[in-house]
Amino acid sequence: MQTRSRRAWLWAVLLAAAALRLAGIRWGLPHAYNADEPHLVNLAVSFGGGSLRPYAFKYPTLWPYILFVAYGFYFVLLRLTGAIHGVADFIGLYGWNPTGFYLIGRLLAAASSLAAVAVMTRAGRRLGESVPWAAALLAVSPRLVESAHSLKPDSFMFLWVCAATFFALKILESGRRADLWRCGACLGLAMSSQFTALPACALLPLAWALSRRRAPARQLLEGVGLSAACFLAGSPYVLLDFHRFWFWVSMRDPAELAAMGPWSRLEVLRQVATNAWGFAGLGSLAGAAVLAGAGRLLARDRRLAALLLIPLALYVAVLSLNPDGGWPRYLFGAFPCLALLASEGLSLAPSGRALLTALIAATAVLPGLWKSASDDAVMRRPDTRAAAQDWIERNVPAGAVILADEPHAGPRLTVERSELLELADNARRSGSPRWRLFDGMAKTHPGGGYRILLLQRSARDLGTFHPKQVQLSQADQLVLDVGSGLEAARKARVDYVITSSYGATPEHSPELAPFFDALYREGRLAASFSPRPGATAGPTLRVFQLARSR
To answer: What per-residue string of b and e applies to 447-485 under the rule 16 or more CB within 10 Å gives b?
Structure first.
């Protein structure tokens, strides 16, 4: 009966995890979900130019390589079905209708996240779970569900950390050589997916040192060596192009960071602690269960307690020293340890009592389930960016000059061919591989379009402590500095300005306050698009028409 009950729980958890990760996965398309999705697709597509050398090391390269392989199959499929006739058509498809490219990446991320939940069912079984609490908490975690809707590498990294945690538990019990190898390989692949997996790498030496049947030290070194080999296999240009790699990972110039203003380590620590407490959803019993589980393990099995608590402590320490450490996704590598500790705490309740188990499930799982399902419902609604795009294409004449915010924050508009040729020429001269994209889009241009300028945003305004990354990103676009006010837009002969609640606002971008003050005072509000509760989603967009100076 216990086996049958556990099997039913497992299927319920996996089905819920799959449903939450797939519902709304097309949200916003062909508009981007966030600012990093286009970067990753651009990187993956750039490998089609004949070199696997990345032009940027914002992320390790294992995930972009996997996307590149997936896009290769996509190209073959489209070619066989006659949907495209060659590489130029494929580039044009990506430039003008990238929905398939984004959807492929999102589905891979969702599959990775679902596989991670499945792995955690096995990890929980090693702790003697009668109910798969660890997997259930991760299945409904709003942060993990949100991440699974994006083609960023966090879900893929999370899968490998979950697998490494499972093998670390096996090492703790048996110290087998094969498990040392497997744990090391998984950690190397996790690091090659996302640099935020670094603190989780403590799992391998910890599991070896705490093992009840400690293997010889040379076997630990074999596992460490395999970890390094897997990392370099997924990101070989860390060594082959170390100069560029170091340029990207050491971008935090002290002088530039000082100009951005002070930051509070105490505040970042508070954010990290809040992320850990609410890993399964705010309001969930899971946060308290982590503390109860830690106390129970310290009294019952200190080896296991150390294996789960030390990596968690490392994550908290490392992230609290980082001004960007409060982002919830940076803590994903600690989620398996948090889930297993919470499972231990939830298992304090007497087994065999269905009503009590249902009550615990309601308090621990339902808050995250409710939030994730609510977010999915929003993602399935029509997007304001699509409505704004439709209005602009019907009401704004081709050739107009439009000033917009970051591409993901507003409507997706057709760029006129002359601007694409200008961008291609600029990118070619600067050495950016994006010139191929701009050139391909120019060759397959559908006609018409607008001259689009982007608001110049500072790193401080964008909320990032990587000023050089912002500069490099803006170098491939036509940006306009309007910090002095509206006159800069008039000099650039801007006809329309599109503002977005997902982008710069007077409240969040005080350095652009003179521009917004003049825009609201002198511009004519031509159209406005706001999300309606229960009906539409997306940012609040406003289109202002400017009268040109005589």
So the answer is: eebbbbbbbbbbbbbbebbbbebbebbeebbeebebeeb
* SS3 call for 198: helix
Q: What is the DSSP string of 296-325?
A: HHHHH-HHHHHHHHHHHHHHHHHHHTSTTT
Handedness of CA 469, 470, 473, 474 (dihedral sign): negative
Radius of gyration of the chain (CA): 25
Token couple for 225: 């060596």
* CA angle centred on 338, ends 15 and 194, rounded to 5°: 80
CA pair distance 54, 44, nearest whole angstrom: 9
State CA 156 to chain mean position distance: 10
DSSP state letters, 131-187: S-HHHHHHHH-HHHHHHHTS-STHHHHHHHHHHHHHHHHHHHHH--HHHHHHHHHHH
Domain that holds residue 114: 2-68+100-248+265-378
Domain match, 388 and 373 both: no
Q: Lowest-pLDDT range, 65-69, 233-237, 258-262, 443-447?
A: 258-262
Domain count for the chain:
2
One domain for residues 218 and 281: yes
Residue 354 — very low, low, confident or very high, per pLDDT cuts 50/70/90?
low
Does 176 share its domain with 132?
yes
Last residue of a domain, one of 378, 399, 427: 378
Largest Cα separation within the chain, whole Å, is 84
Q: pLDDT tens across 251-300, in order? A: 655 555 565 567 788 899 999 999 999 999 999 999 999 999 999 999 99
Residue 42 sits in the same domain as residue 158: yes
Distance (Å, whole) CA 367 – CA 164: 28
- 112: tokens are 């990775």
Domain boundary among 353, 378, 403: 378
Residues 2 and 130: beta-carbon distance below 8 Å: yes
Q: Is 429 exposed, middle or buried (0-12, 13-18, 19+ CB in 10 A)?
A: exposed
Are residues 337 and 405 part of one domain?
A: no
| CA gap 490, 547 in Å, rounded | 8
Judgement on whether residues 137 and 58 belong to the same structural domain of the protein: yes
This prediction has a pTM of 0.92
Q: Are residues 51 and 106 in the same domain?
A: yes
Which contiguous run of DSSP H or E holds residue 293? helix 286-300
Rounded CA separation 122/134 (Å): 10
Please state whether the peptide bond connecting residue 30 to the residue before it is cis, i.e. omega within 30 degrees of 0: yes
106, 24, 32: which is closest to 376 by C-alpha? 24
